[in-house]
Structures are given as C-alpha cells and as structure tokens.
Amino acid sequence: MDHVKETGRTAIDVALNGLYRQFFDRAEKKRRWSVRDDIPWEQTNPNLDPAIASVVESFCAVELFLPDYVRTAMSVFRSNRACAWFYANWGYEESKHSLVLGDWLLRSGQRSDEQLADLEGQLFQYEWQVPMDSAVGTLVYAMVQELATGVNYRNLRRRLDELGGDPALAKVLNLISVDEQSHHHFFLDAIRLYLEHDRAGTLRQMHRVLHSFAMPALHLLADCKQRESVIRSLGLFDEGVFIREVYEPILAALGVSRAELRRSA
User: Fold this and answer.
1) Which among 15, 2, 31, 48 is positioned nearest to 167, based on CA atoms?
2) Alpha carbon of residue 116 to chain centroid
3) What pLDDT was estimated at residue 128?
C-alpha cells in the first residue's frame, strides 16, 4: 500500500480542505437543483425507444449501491475531514441521481413500481466492495469512475433526439452530467496534490486503476452482459470511448505521459 510521505500530510490536509470548500461553495451557488421542481415532467415521452429505458434502469441500478459506496469511503477517510465531508455531500447528490432516474422510469411508463421494487430487492442481496486497497487508490478510482459515469450520461443525452426525444430526460441527464463533472474535478485536483507530494506512489495507483478499470457494481446485476451490450450498441461507452474520453484526458490534465505511467508499474 502506498503512503503519502509524512512531511506532506499537513500540507495535503490543508489543501484538501481548500478544495472541498471551493467545491461546496460552488455547488451551493450554482448546482443545487430539485427533483420535483426543476424537471419538465409534463414533457416526458412515453414512446421513447425501450433501449433508452434499459440504459436508464442500468444507471439507476448502479446508483442503488450508494450505501456501499458511502460506507466504504467513510471507513477509508473518516480521519480526513475534507474527504469525509466531501463524501457526505457526494452521497446526497448521488441519492438525487437515483431518485430522479427512478422517477423518469415511472413517469415515462417504461417501468412500474413493482418492477423497480423487484430490482431493488435483487440488488440488495449483494454488497459492493471497493476494488482498491489504499486511500490514494480509492481517490484515483473515484476520479476515473466519475468521469466515466459523466461520459455515459453525456453520450446518452446526445442519442436522445435520434431515438425519439424526451425533454424531461434530457434535463435529467444534463443536471446529472454537471454534477458528475464537478465530482470528477474534485478528485482530479486531489490527485494532483498527491502527485506533488508522492509522484511515484500516486502513479503506481493510477496505473493500477487505469489498466483494470470497470464501472462499479454493474457486474452484480444478473443480466449485466445484456445491459453492457445495449450500452455498447448505442455507442455510449466501450473500450475505445474509455481511452479517448477518460484515459487520455486524465493523463493530459495531470501532466502524465503514457511512458511515465508505464514506468511506474
């Protein structure tokens, strides 16, 4: 397990606190939105391509593992106020994502209350475990996952008009995408701090995550292969999208070359 050098802990804690306050203040001023009031629910399209509903249900299912995500993060970062407070805020925002996606499935008529209750019952038989064994690795995984999730939402939004259009779902996806991008930037800035204090150790964690990444919890769904197939068929996310829209942008943003990342392994 990689550790930040002892001499850098105080400096990193102070810097992380500053990052969290910037994140929180910006969210309070610009990003807070209401599931009930900020979506044009009356413009929901009941005739949208069923493939869209399948993808939305998959996203909703992944969001339902929120208790596991928060529990894991809090156990790792309990003594780090900035990260613990960030994850408390993150959990609130992710809970809204779960609620609003489920509401769209119901209002569109694509799913019933009974179907969503059955889905929850199936999922809660399983427990998600964080794939990393270090605090820095957990932050790196979150940095990658938030960008990948945002890419999925953004690409689904781009396909909506081609597949029938839905102003309500478009608004939902826009709001969620902005949240996910904001989460990603917090983690990106945090990893930038760790690179400054322990570049070699942080690069090792980046290599581990970027070369073994998988979206959280999707593998726990009984029909995960079918769901992944639908996501790929719509062009939302695959290996090529991951390289172009996640892997390469992260390296560029952090000033890390592929050669340096390879050497870290």
Assistant:
1) 48
2) 21
3) 78
Longest CA pairwise span in the chain (Å): 60
CATH number for 176: 1.10.620.20
| Of 229, 213, 209, nearest in space to 221 by CA | 229
- 1 within some domain: no
Residue 4 has a pLDDT of 41
Give how far the C-alpha of residue 221 lies from the chain's centroid of Cα atoms, to the nearest Å: 17
Q: Where are the beta strands (DSSP E) in 78-145?
A: none
pTM, to two decimals:
0.90
Are the C-beta atoms of residues 139 and 190 closer than 8 Å to each other?
Answer: yes
What's the length of the chain? 265
CA separation for the pair 33, 22 (Å, rounded):
18
Give the pLDDT confidence of 126-158 residue by residue, as tens digits. 787 776 678 999 999 999 999 999 999 999 999
Q: In whole angstroms, how far apart are CA 172 and each of 24, 54, 63, 99, 156?
A: 21, 16, 14, 11, 11
| 245: containing domain | 6-264
